[in-house]
Amino acid sequence: MRILFAGDEQPYSAYALKEAAKLAMNTWADMTLLGIQPGGGGAAAVDPALNLALTRYRESFLNAWEGEGSPYAMANWQYEWIPLKEGVLEEKLVCRGSKKDFKVRLRQGNVAAGILAEAREEGADLIVLGCSRGGGSQWAGAPGVPQKVAADADCSVLLVKEEQPITRILACLDQTHVSQSSLEILNQMVTLHGAQLEVIGLNPEGGLKKEVYTRLIEVGDYYQERNIKVTTRLTEIADFESFISQETQQDLLALWMGKKSLLQRFFPRDWVGRFVAKSQTSVMVMR
Questions:
Q1: Which domain-ending residue is among 160, 186, 206?
Q2: Is 0.70 surpassed by the pTM of this model?
Q3: In contact, 16 and 132? CB cutoff 8 Å
């Protein structure tokens, strides 16, 4: 498993890093910390505030492992060819994690595009980033970043809106296909937080759809077999927006989203970003 954490200098990014570290330590995932510096390409100087933030995130992540035997301990020294500019490489001595891959990277340019590009190139299984709770879930200085990343990423995305306990996870199922990786990521979140799990089948209007009910039961059985307490229920897709507004308090809203999403048909205009912004608490989009 590879986790990509994207962060800026704001408090919400520090909260998100804590969540990413918990997941990485529990799964021994390969880890990349990414900063995005707006502007064009070239050898522009690294913004001091962003550089300081990335340094703090690196130290915080590496120090999160309690005791000896951290898979991220920087103990693997080797010479590598590092590109300096087009056509020029220099051999440098590089230290990497002893057992698992750990990287800190900086990209320049559009924030959302940079995060998505890094995730694709690195083959990330999960993107973790923070965003503000109020004002439509924003990333400072770059409007719409959380919404675009959640909508366009090829992998699962966890948006951490604030530092608060997660007592319940509301996992909304709107399709018949559910990937194994999404089931496992949700399993990790339930275990890490000791949260109650409620799986909600989203049903189109006009009577109960057999495939929705069948998949709801299958997902519920999957977690019960792993000794995770789970409750299941159905709700109409037409009531989904009011459901989000009324029911998510100290909850994590988890959305299964695939290429044949029923929500896509009912809310065709960027529904992922719409629900990400509407939810008052953290959101996980699972693929």
A1: 160
A2: yes
A3: no
